[in-house]
């Protein structure tokens, strides 16, 4: 059996002296793993890096086998971010989060398109932190754990939404949430229409990461005895440090 598909590399780990097991998120075949042979050869050097866009050909004798990959580089996203600690942390984080969250070999074409668009934003747009949070929201939605941020859970109001209920994943207005605000999650304004001019800023981005992180961990990962990957925590720490530097 074999297939060829556009894919984003999520991770690789050493396999023997000259090979690696790569995990990719492909457009039509979802999360897939395979052995890449000669990973350090001239043809493959630097290809199997998290975030890189590749043309991947997977082949195995039976569909349930691990199989082998041959990958051709299409876009070297990782190399272009090496000098930007925050962007590189975001790339590493989202690759690890997607790898931890998705089942093997289940296609998510809409999520793939959003992920690919995020990589373009990460390379060139200052609004990438907000785009990162929205990508995690899309991950929740595409895996069946979408949040309802359209109206207040406590009465249907569509204005002055400031919180999210950790129990229901629904928005809560400032008025309805006032008595319970210590137990609610903050809802950053950039997740509501119309988004604020100039983006949400560091404080709102961190609030967005706390929001999506809660539901990723408690709704999506916990039922499978998983936790958010360490790379996700490192992204939060990096953004916290940058926010502190900018505030001083």
Structural features, described:
With 248 residues, this protein is α+β, with helices and mostly antiparallel strands. It has two domains: 75 residues, Nucleic acid-binding proteins (OB fold (Dihydrolipoamide Acetyltransferase, E2P)), CATH 2.40.50; 131 residues, de novo design (two linked rop proteins). The chain is 37% helix and 21% strand. The strands form two sheets. It has a five-stranded mixed barrel with strand order 1-2-3-5-4. A three-stranded antiparallel beta sheet has the order 7-6-8. The longest helix has 21 residues. The radius of gyration is 19 Å and the shape is globular. 38% of the residues are buried.
CATH topology of the largest domain: de novo design (two linked rop proteins)
CATH architecture of the largest domain: Up-down Bundle
Radius of gyration: 19 Å
Structural domain count? 2
Helix content: 25-40%
Biggest beta sheet attributes = 5 strands, mixed, barrel
Q: Averaging pLDDT over every residue, what do you get?
A: 93
Gross geometry:
globular
Biggest sheet, spatial arrangement of strands: 1-2-3-5-4
Helix and strand content put the structural class at alpha+beta
Subunit arrangement of the protein: single chain
Number of helices: 6
Counted beta strands: 8
Distance between the amino and carboxyl termini: 58 Å
Low-pLDDT runs of 5+ residues are: none
Task: Write a compact overview of the structure shown.
It is built from 6 helices and 8 strands; from the N terminus they run βββββαααββαβαα.
């Amino acid at each position: 059996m074999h297939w060829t598909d556009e894919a984003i590399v999520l991770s690789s780990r050493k396999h023997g002296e000259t090979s690696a097991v790569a995990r990719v998120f492909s457009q039509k075949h979802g999360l897939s793993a395979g052995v890449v042979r000669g990973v350090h050869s001239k043809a493959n050097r630097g290809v199997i890096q998290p975030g890189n866009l590749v043309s991947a050909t997977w082949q195995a004798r039976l569909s349930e086998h691990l199989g082998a990959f041959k990958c051709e580089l299409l876009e070297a996203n990782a190399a272009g971010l090496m000098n930007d600690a925050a962007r590189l942390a975001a790339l590493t984080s989202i690759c690890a989060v997607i790898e931890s969250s998705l089942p093997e070999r289940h296609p998510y074409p809409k999520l793939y398109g959003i992920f690919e668009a995020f990589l373009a934003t990460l390379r060139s747009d200052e609004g990438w932190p907000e785009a990162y949070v929205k990508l995690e929201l899309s991950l929740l939605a595409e895996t069946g754990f979408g949040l309802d941020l359209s109206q207040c859970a406590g009465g249907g109001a569509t204005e002055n939404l400031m919180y999210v209920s950790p129990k229901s994943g629904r928005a809560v207005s400032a008025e309805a949430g006032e008595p319970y605000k210590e137990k609610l999650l903050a809802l950053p304004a950039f997740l509501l229409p119309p988004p604020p001019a100039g983006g949400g800023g560091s404080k709102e981005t961190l609030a967005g990461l706390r929001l999506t992180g809660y539901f990723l961990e408690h709704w999506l990962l916990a039922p499978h005895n998983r936790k958010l990957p360490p790379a996700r925590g490192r992204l939060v720490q990096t953004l916290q440090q940058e926010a502190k530097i900018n505030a001083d």
